[in-house]
Amino acid sequence: MSPEVLVNSLIICAVCWAIWRIVRMRQPEVSLRSVAILVLGDIGRSPRMMYHAESFASIGFETYLIGYAGTKPVPSLLSIPHVRFLYLSEPPRYISSWPFIVAAPRKVLHQVLSILNTLLVRIPHPPEFIIVQNPPSIPTLALVWFVARLRGSKVIIDWHNLGYSILALKLGDQHIFVRIAKWFESYFGRVAYAHLFVTRAMRDFLVREWDLQGIKVVLHDRPPARFHRASPSEAHELFLKLRSVLAIPELTSFLPPISPPYSTPFTSMPRSSLLSSEPRRPSDDTGKRLARGTAPMPALRSDRPALLVSSTSWTPDEDFGILLDAMVLYEKRARELSNAPSSDGLRTSLPKLLVIVTGKGPLRDEYMQRIGKLQSGEGGEDAWRYVRCVSLWLEAEDYPLLLGSADLGVSLHSSSSALDLPMKVVDMFGCGLPVCALGFACLDELVKDGVNGLVFHNAEQLAGQLEDLLSSHPHSHVIERLRSSLRHTYPRSPRSPASEEDADYWGTWAQNWDRVVRPLILRDVAETTY
C-alpha cells in the first residue's frame, strides 16, 4: 500500500470516528415514515430508484433521493412534494490533472465524505429506511452499514447485479482486486433488513452462496403507467419534434419525403381537410389544432420504413457488434431479394430499416464511426441502400413515445453475472413493443421465446429474425401476434400479497411495488422470509 493511500485511509477512519462521537452525543429520536434512497450515479439515469422514490412518496413517506446531478429526472418525480433531491458534490476538477496514484484516493475520500455528510447531516432526522442500489458496492454498502448502525435506520439493498462480476469483465475472475471486491460485497451486503432482487435466479444464487440474512423478495422490473403503445397522433407529434435531428444528410434521401406539419417519415394527414377559414401556415402546433377540431387525425404512412429501436448503455456487457453485423447481413439480403423474382413471378423484398439507438456510453463514438463508414460506402463497399442507423438521446417524456411508435425492439444485454434482466426490455414490453433479445441464463423470466419476443445468440440469428418479422411490413402478422401477448390483464387486486405463483404477474410498476414492497415496509415483524 502506497503512503498516499495509507494516509487517506487513516484520515477517513479519523473522520468516521469523529462523526460517530458527535452524532452519538446528539442523537435525536428516529423519525418514522421517511426513506433515503442512495444512488451512486446519475439520478436521472437510474429509473428503478426513481420509481422507488415515487412509490414511497405516494404513500406519504418523506423521501430523500441521493445521487449525482446530470440527466433530468422523470417529470412525474419533479412534481411530488414529498420528494427531495440531495445531490452529491463532484470532486474538484483540478484533481483530474494529478497523477493517478494521488488523484484516485483523493476522489474516493471526497466521495466518502460527501455521502456521509448527506446521510448524517443534510437529512435532519434519521430515516426509517435507507435503500441502496447495488452495484456499485464500494464504498456504498459499507457506508450505509455504518450510517444505519449510527442512526438506527433499516437497510434495504436493491440487488440490480453483482459489482464484482462487472469488475471481472475488465480484470478477469481471479484478479486480486476482483476477489477483494467480492469479499467486500458479500460481507457488507450479507445482513440487511430486506433484500430486493430483480430476478428469482439472483435471489436463489445469493441466498445459497452468501447466506443472506433478512427479508428476501423478488421485485421484477415493471414499466410505469405512462409507458403504452403510441397512437398515430402521438407518433406524429413525436416525429415532428424530432424532425431536426432526423434531417441529417444521410437520412433525408433515405426516408420518405415530408411536408411538416402535415407529414413525417412515419405519419401523415391530408392537407385538404384543414378548415379553409384558418390560414395554412406551417406550424409545429398540430396538437392544439387537433384539439380544436381544425385538422383530421394523423395516420401511419403505408410507405414508411420499418422502425427498430435498441436502447443501450454502450458498455462491454452489451455487444453492439452483434447488431452491427446483423444490419450488414440485412442490407445484403435486402439487395438480393430486390434483384431476385420469386418462382411465381412476383418480386419479394424487404423494407427499408431505420435503426434508432438510444443511450450514452463509452463505446458510442467508436461504433457510430464504423456505422457511418459502412453507410457511406467508405472502404470500397457499396453504400447502404436499405439500412440507416442513428444514435439519439431523448428526454424522459419522449422515450416511451419512441418505443410505442416502433415496430420492433432489440436488446443486446448479456449480463455480467447472468443473474439480472434488461430493464430496457421491460420498458419495451410496457409500450407493446415485441423484442429480439440476446439470450443468456434467466432471460426466460422476462422474454418467452416465440410468445412475446424472439431470442438470438449471434448476428446471423438476429438477421434471420429481422427478415422473418419485417418481410410483410407494414402489416406483419408475426409482429402482431407477439404484440398481442403483451396485452396482459389480471383480475387480482394489485395489493394482494405476492407469492411465488405470481412470478409472471404483469402490471405497472406501482401495482407490482404495492404487491411486493408495500407489505414489507408496513409490516411489524421483520424476520419473515419469502
From TrEMBL:
GO molecular function: glycosyltransferase activity
Protein topology in the membrane: Single-pass membrane protein
Segments traversing the membrane: 6-23
Main location: endoplasmic reticulum
Biased composition (Low complexity): 268-277
Transmembrane listed as a keyword: yes
Localization per Swiss-Prot or TrEMBL: Endoplasmic reticulum membrane
Region (Disordered): 267-297
Domain Glycosyltransferase subfamily 4-like N-terminal residue range list: 51-218
Superkingdom, natural source: Eukaryota
Pfam family, one: Glyco_trans_1_4
Biased composition (Basic and acidic residues): 278-288
Enzyme Commission numbers on file: 2.4.1.142
Pathway: Protein modification; protein glycosylation
Coiled-coil ranges per UniProt: none
Keyword match Transmembrane helix: yes
Keywords from the named record: Endoplasmic reticulum, Glycosyltransferase, Membrane, Transferase, Transmembrane, Transmembrane helix
Function: Participates in the formation of the lipid-linked precursor oligosaccharide for N-glycosylation. Involved in assembling the dolichol-pyrophosphate-GlcNAc(2)-Man(5) intermediate on the cytoplasmic surface of the ER.
Name this polypeptide is given: Chitobiosyldiphosphodolichol beta-mannosyltransferase
